[in-house]
Amino acid sequence: MGNARVLRQLPARLKKGRAPDVAAMQRAVADFLSAAGMDVTCAELQETPARVARAWASGFLDGYARTPAEALAETYPAPSGSRGELVVVTGLHFHSMCPHHLLPVEGRATLAYVPGRRVVGFGRLGALLDTLAHRLILQETLARSVASALATELGSPATACVLEAHQACLRVRGEEQSDAVTHSEAYTGSLRKDGALRRELWVRIAASRGAGR
Question: Among 16, 53, 70, 179, which one has the highest count of C-beta atoms within 10 angstroms of its own C-beta?
């Protein structure tokens, strides 16, 4: 299967990684602050290295502790006659870290797939998104990785991941484009074609945006 080959060829940084060395991370943060001219013994910064190390290990890079297969491990047989119908979840919140500047990315995602042999609980779609988002990953790579994982792990003939995000590296540095919103889309299978199925997906996305206003 083509989508399976895509996922197997993902770089090692998108697969399961080794456990973080939190103590070493803490020392590195302290060294960074010292190199920046900060006094890490002052009251405001004494606990900062430990806090930063814990935040990165447990909230920003914890996706490396799981694989897409583990996130989607609990599946169920697809309901009879469900093939060809879209399953869509909109409004999924996610956060990630830009690998270029180590600055945060926050946004919303839409995940969609056409059931093949198996379906998965809606909560597992959010788990898949977090597994791949909680890494150092480009937004475009995140969209492609999520769509490919859905195709591979669920045997789906059509998948999609649509991301809208606020990138801190655009908003607080350089030209400071504070209103910029970045968009990334990835499709597999029949959703790669701009046909009726793709239009149905975007009708649902538009409806969810209107409901959120």
Answer: 53
151 with 46, same domain? no
What share of the chain has pLDDT > 90, as a percent?
A: 76
Residues 91 and 151 in one domain: yes
54: containing domain: 22-60
Q: How high is the pLDDT of residue 14?
A: 57
DSSP codes, 16-80:
--PPP-HHHHHHHHHHHHHHTT--TTSTTTTTHHHHHHHHIIIIISGGGGS-HHHHT--EEEPPT
pLDDT of residue 4: 37
Average pLDDT over residues 26-40: 97
> For 15, phi and psi rounded to 5 degrees?
-100, -175
Asked whether residue 2 is domain-assigned, the answer is no
- What is d(CA 115, CA 14) in angstroms, rounded to the nearest whole number? 25
Domain identity same for 150 and 111? yes
Smallest CA-to-CA distance from 114 within 76, 68, 150, 162 is with: 150
Average pLDDT for 173-180: 76
Q: Which two tokens stand for residue 193?
A: 């074609």
Which residues, in sequence order, are CB contacts of 24 under 8 Å at separation 6+? none
Residue 213's pLDDT is: 56
| Number of domains the chain contains | 2
Residues 82 and 179 in one domain: yes
